[in-house]
Design goal:
Shape: globular
Strand content: 5-15%
Distance between the termini: 25 Å
Number of strands: 6
Low-confidence stretches: none
Mean pLDDT: 88
CATH topology of the largest domain: Rossmann fold
Order of helices and strands: HHHHHHHEHEHEHEHEHEH
Helix content: 40-55%
Largest sheet: 6 strands, mixed
Oligomer: single chain
Strand order of the largest sheet: 3-2-1-4-5-6
CATH superfamily of the largest domain: Uncharacterised protein PF01937, DUF89, domain 3
Length: 293
């Protein structure tokens, strides 16, 4: 998926929010913003948004002298999600279709995204949970159910800290011995790292690896050898978050994307309106299924 000119205001907003996380001085905010605007002027719009975001945030961290501006807020989001976990597990246990409910709850956790909402509250997270369970899912859950049952190797691409706790609900419904969870290899916005997977307890039930990249989405050319080995071997990939959709939607791979549509650019690409809870497949598979039917 290519970067749209409509992505540029989002990059600028992220710049200001990150600067405000680490400094209270308006002069610092202005200086950071001017530097990032200069770097954005020469971007290649044929690249996917996560690759542009990676370059921008690398520049941003260097300017601010802070390798992880979002560290503290990630801790808070993990703590919030863990406080909700017993309640969420009970919802799954009481559900007539635990897989579907765990999918909906995993998608509801995608609201924990500092790339789109830096002022997230507990009420907003709870509202996202209620909304996800009450609104229709834009795909037949049976497609995912069948693929998880027959896959000999499943790769689960996590998205954000906090959200990764919600992911555990779905991961626990999968054949655990066949699952590998992937997190980012270095800090980028509030994306989940190995330490966040440990906080969520995922390392206790499945293999967890870092992809070696600091892009806010799985940019294949930037990932390490270990990731590529698992990616090639996987019969099924479950990719959480809009950033992973932006990076991988055109891949010829058996990928299911779970995310909430958060902007008009992705809306035009995926075909679901902003705010929709989406469970969809890679573009090539959607086209293939449409053609065969």
């Amino acid at each position: 998926m290519k970067t749209s000119i409509d992505c540029i205001p989002c990059f600028v907003r992220q710049t200001l929010e990150a600067a405000r996380f680490v400094s209270d001085y308006v002069s610092v905010h202005e200086g950071v913003l001017r530097e990032i605007l200069r770097s954005l002027a020469g971007i290649d719009l044929d690249l996917p948004p996560p690759l542009i975001g990676q370059r921008m945030h690398r520049n941003l961290r260097e300017i601010m002298g802070n390798e992880d501006p979002y560290r503290e807020v990630k801790r808070r989001h993990n703590h919030l999600a863990l406080s909700l976990l017993p309640e969420l597990k009970q919802m799954v246990r009481n559900s007539p279709d635990p897989l579907k409910t765990s999918v909906l709850l995993a998608i509801s956790g995608n609201v924990i995204d500092l790339g789109t909402n830096s002022g997230l509250t507990e009420d907003e997270v709870r509202s996202s949970i209620t909304r996800s369970l009450s609104e229709p899912l834009r795909m037949n859950i049976e497609d995912l159910r069948k693929e998880t049952e027959k896959a000999s190797s499943i790769l689960y691409l996590a998205d954000n800290a906090g959200e990764i706790v919600f992911d555990r609900l779905l991961i626990e419904r999968l054949p655990l011995r066949r699952v590998t969870v992937v997190v980012r290899g270095a800090p980028i916005i509030n994306d989940a790292l190995i330490e966040d997977a440990h906080t969520a307890g995922l390392d206790e039930i499945v293999r967890v690896i870092g992809n070696g990249s600091d892009a806010p989405g799985t940019v294949l050319d930037d990932c390490n050898r270990e990731f590529h080995w698992h990616y090639k071997a996987a019969d099924l990939v479950i990719a959480k978050g809009q950033g992973n959709y932006e990076a991988l939607s055109d891949e010829k791979k058996n990928i299911f994307f779970l995310f909430r549509v958060k902007c008009a650019t992705v809306e035009s690409h995926v075909g679901f309106k902003v705010g929709t809870n989406a469970l969809t497949r890679a573009t090539s598979l959607r086209r293939s299924k449409h053609t065969s039917s």
